[in-house]
Amino acid sequence: MHSEYVNKKILIISKEWSSENKTGLGFSSLSHAKILKDMGCNVTTVGINHKSTDVNFDVKNLLNFLTNYNYFLNKTDTIINKIKPDIIIVESLQTVISEIFLMKAQKKKIKTIIISHGISVFPYKLKIKYILRFLAWFVYIPILKKILRNSDIIMSLDLNSLDCRHYDTNVAKKYRKKIISYNNFSRFENYDFKKAKQKKNKKTILCLGYVNHIKNQIELIEIAKRIKDLDIEIKIIFNKYDHKYLNLLKKKIKDNNLRNVLLYNVGEVSIVDEIINSWFLINVSITEVSPLSLIEGNSLRKFFLSYDVGSINKLKGGIINQSLSQIVFNIRSLNNNNFFNERLEYTAKLNYLKSFNKKNCQESFVKILEII
C-alpha cells in the first residue's frame, strides 16, 4: 500500500465489469479498480447497468438514455456530488456513460483520466456497411476532440501506432496531453498448472471472444476445410454473439460436413483449462487493439497466429500473418516441428513476463497518480 494515496477518492466509470461481462474491457475494469484499491485509494465503481458495481447508472439501452437524457444528466451530478472524487477515471470511450461523466467532471474542474481501449469510428474496410457506420459516428469526432483536449491524462495501449483504432491517442498527442503507456495483463499470470484438467486429445487451435463479423470467425471455416487431412480441431469459445452470424457459422460447418470445428459458449467450459490444453490461439479479426485472449495465452506459454491488425505486432509471442493462405501454411509447417513449437512457447512466456505482466500495469498507475 502506498501511504500517499490512502483515501484519495477515485470514481471509475465503465460500461463493462467482470464477472457480469466476460470481456477484455470487463476484466480490465475490475483489475484496474483492484490495483487502485491495493494502492490505498478509496475507489467507487460505476457501471452502466450492473449489480456488482458500487453505483448502478441503470441505463437499460441507448433509447432509454436518449429519452431520459436530462434524468441521467442529473443523476451524474448527484453521483459526483455525493462521492466528491479527487479523480474520475473512465475505461474506454464511445460508451455514453464515459462521455457524460467526463464532460461533467471537466466542467466541475475535477481531474480526469481516460484509459483508452481504442476507438472504433473509422471504416474497418471499404464496404458499404462500414462506411455507413462511419457516417453515423462522424458527429462524435468533435465531441471526442473536446473531451481529449480537456482531459488531464490519457493511458494508452500503444504510444506509437498510427492505426485508426488509436485515433484518440494520436489526437491527444496533437493537444500535447500527458500520455502514459499501460498494458493489459493476464488473470492467469500465477496459475498453478497442477490445477488444470489435462486432456489427451488431438491438437486444438483455440479462438476466444465475441462471435460476429468483426471477429471474422467465418475464415476459420475456410481454414478448417484446408486442414481437414490433419488431426487438428478448431475450437471457438464465445461469450457475446451476433445471432445471425452464429447461425451462419453453424450452417457453414454443417454444409461442409466439418467435424474439426467445435462451438462452445464460455459458460460450458473453463477458459484457463481450454488455453492450457490448446496447441495455440488464433485471431482472424478484421480489427483489434490489444486482445486480452492472446496475452492470456502467452502467460500460459501458448503462442498465437494472427493477422497484422491493431497493436498485435507488439506481442512477440506469436506469428503475424498477412493472409489466410499464410496462416494455413504456418499451421502445416508447425504441425510436426517440435523445435519451433517449443521456441514459440518459450518466447510467448518470456515476452509476457517482460512486457505484459501485472507489475508493469501497476507501475503505470503509480506513475499517473504521481503526476496528476
Structural key phrases:
372 residues; seven-stranded parallel β-sheet; 42% helix; 13 strands; six-stranded parallel β-sheet; alpha/beta; single chain
Walkthrough of the structure:
By secondary structure, the protein is α/β, with parallel strands linked by helices. Helix content is 42%, strand content 17%. The chain contains 14 helices and 13 strands. The protein has a seven-stranded parallel β-sheet with strand order 3-2-1-4-5-6-7, with helices on both faces. Helix 7 links the parallel strand 6 and strand 7 (178-181). Helix 3 packs across helix 4 (97-107), helix 8 (218-226) packs across helix 12 (324-334) and helix 11 (292-299) crosses helix 13 (338-355). It is globular. The protein starts with 8 loop residues before the first strand and ends with a helix. The relative contact order is 0.11. The mean pLDDT is 94.
In short:
By secondary structure, the protein is α/β, with parallel strands linked by helices. The chain contains 14 helices and 13 strands.
